[in-house]
Amino acid sequence: MSGPIRSQAAYLLHSRPFRDSSLLLDLLTRDHGRISAIARGVRSAKSKNKALLQSFVPLQVNLSGKSELKTLTQVEALSGPLVLRQRNLFAALYMNELLSRLLHRQEGDVDIFSLYESALAQLSSTDVIEPVLRCFEIDLLELLGYGIDFSLFADDELAEHAYYHFSAEHGFEPIQNPDGGREKYYPHTELCKIYSREFSDISTLKFAKRLLRTAFAAHLGDRELSSRQLFRKNN
Predict the structure, then answer these.
(1) Using CA atoms in the order 213, 229, 139, 190, what is the torsion angle rounded to 10 degrees?
(2) How confident is the model at residue 227 (pLDDT cuts 50, 70, 90)?
(3) What is the reported pTM?
(4) Less packed terminus of the chain by CB within 10 Å, N or C?
């Protein structure tokens, strides 16, 4: 997409130093998706924008440039930063990393922006982060066109004692004899709960986490997410 972008709601997903005093930004915008932009001079002592360019601050930005790499010309905060501490912060960083890795540049999706904004708001107001993350992951896969087909589990009374194998390529496949490998498979009852977003049981959260990690692995490649390393170091 060429041409300027004005008065666009955005969040900073990631930034890194660029040349002497600038930053290279990875932005999630409401109408234009993920955009790369240069923020010139913001690392200098005189810059008024450095404090604004932080993750989890609702922003409004103006961008210029005809190429894929834009230039940030104006930024303002729409409100104060969300308060995220410890595991909630790591969870939000994980969401940022997923979006940075999976979204193509300049492919807008208002629903993805709304999903991200809603998940951030939930993380800032709860100590129970796992259900928030699992719902975010399920919805993100769906919006990206990689959704998991849970239609087998719409009725929790069917195949009550069945087990399933899951792969991103083939989806769910019933297992006739799960003995000796139950740790690899998914009980029908647990998949029904995941389908219904019933995450009150620890066992359901564990199955959902494993299921979604498998689903995302097919699209993330071999490079490990840095945010997962943070979780491991701080747990």
Answers:
(1) 40
(2) confident
(3) 0.91
(4) C
Token pair belonging to 205: 């959260």
What is the rounded CA–CA span in Å between residue 134 and residue 212? Answer: 8
Confidence (pLDDT) at 158: 65
Spatial CA neighbour of 70 closest among 26, 112, 117, 19 = 26
What is the number of helices (H) and of strands (E) in the chain? 6, 8
Domain 5-77 is in which class?
Answer: mainly beta
Contact assessment for residue 133 and residue 122, using Cβ atoms and an 8 Å cutoff: no
Domain boundaries, given as residue ranges, for the chain: 5-77, 86-233
- CATH fold of 86-233, please? de novo design (two linked rop proteins) (1.20.1440)
- pLDDT tens digits, one per residue of 145-195: 999 999 988 876 667 778 999 999 999 999 877 776 667 899 999 999 999
73 within 8 A of 63, measured Cβ to Cβ:
yes
* 231 has a pLDDT exceeding 70: no
Cα–Cα distance for residue pair 112/118, rounded to 1 Å: 10
Estimate to the nearest angstrom the gap between the alpha carbon of 188 and the chain centroid. Answer: 27
For the chain, the residue count is 235
Residue 175 phi/psi, 5° resolution? Answer: -110, 125
Measured CA to CA, the distance from residue 131 to residue 6 in angstroms comes to 35
Report which of 113, 86, 108 is spatially closest to residue 11, judged by C-alpha positions: 113
**In this predicted model, what pLDDT tens digit does every residue of 110-137 receive, in sequence order?**
999 999 999 999 999 999 999 999 999 9
